[in-house]
Design a protein that fits this description.
Length: about 280
């Protein structure tokens, strides 16, 4: 496999969607930048503690907020909610899913995939460039959120203690999750012939996974299948509060991404490509 050719193809597919990717990265960074500002406007962790104490127990369970935990975890506990917020997940998911769908299924739909294959470049090399692209985008998504949060903290200075080093564990959690999502989307993209179908399938899987994890705490039947959700292994709160990323969870998400990416390679190398 020609490493230089893989790098050139990776750069090409990344450039083709660069404006959209930059917009999503800026959106994620700004969203996390705002989190400390909002907390500071409520009077920091103490002010939010007083508000959380007034939430009825039933609503606490439904919204997955525990005042006693947030009170003990302080500022970090409240800030961690920004890394599990649906908007954060949607923005990050759109970036990695969009790339994986566009760079394989989308190019097959438009016939562009035949251009590199017309040269002495193998299918595994073409696929490897997409895997590398997913890895790069996953890393960017994992980093931009913490960078935005640091900027927000330095700007607003909300009341409460915060250990900046704990953002490293949060970054690892995000990287593992986005890589798993990207690997699964690549698998679907290798089998499909239209980007729209892949996007619909991947977003549906992401929403279902989030739904199962979110409601498993209040609906017993979902607890039995919670292990199937990617978000069961994504723990930004634990990471930001304690600075520890659970190794088993990271390996599970990384393994899902690797297995899915390998399965996609097998499908892509064996399938008939549209002319």
């Amino acid at each position: 496999m020609n490493a230089a050719a893989v790098l050139r193809m990776t750069a090409r597919v990344l450039r083709s969607g660069l404006p959209g990717l930059i917009a999503l990265l800026l959106g994620i960074g700004f969203f996390e930048f705002v989190q400390p500002l909002v907390i500071a406007s409520f009077g920091g962790a103490r002010g939010l503690d007083a508000i959380m104490d007034r939430i009825p127990p039933a609503l606490q369970a439904f919204t997955r907020t525990r005042p006693e935990f947030l009170a003990l975890s302080g500022l970090a506990g409240y800030l961690s909610l920004g890394f599990s917020h649906p908007l954060y997940i949607v923005l990050a998911g759109a970036a990695v899913v969009g790339f994986a769908a566009r760079s394989l299924a989308g190019e097959m739909d438009r016939g562009i995939i035949q251009i590199p294959l017309a040269r002495p470049i193998s299918r595994p090399a073409v696929y490897a460039s997409r895997v590398l692209g997913v890895g790069i985008i996953s890393a960017l998504l994992a980093v931009v959120g913490p960078i935005g949060m640091v900027a927000g903290l330095l700007y607003s200075r909300p009341e409460g203690d915060f250990v900046y080093a704990h953002l490293g564990a949060t970054t690892l959690n995000g990287l593992a999750l986005f890589w798993a999502v990207g690997g699964l989307t690549l698998w679907g993209s290798a089998a499909a012939s239209t980007a729209g179908r892949v996007v619909g399938w991947a977003i549906g899987l992401l929403v279902l996974s989030y739904f199962v994890d979110y409601f498993a705490g209040v609906w017993a039947p979902l607890q039995r299948i919670a292990f199937l959700s990617l978000f069961e292994y994504y723990e930004p709160t634990e990471a930001l509060v304690s600075g520890r990323a659970d190794t088993a969870n990271l390996l599970t998400l990384a393994g899902v991404g690797i297995v899915a990416a390998v399965a996609g390679l097998v499908v892509f190398t064996r399938r008939d490509l549209p002319a």
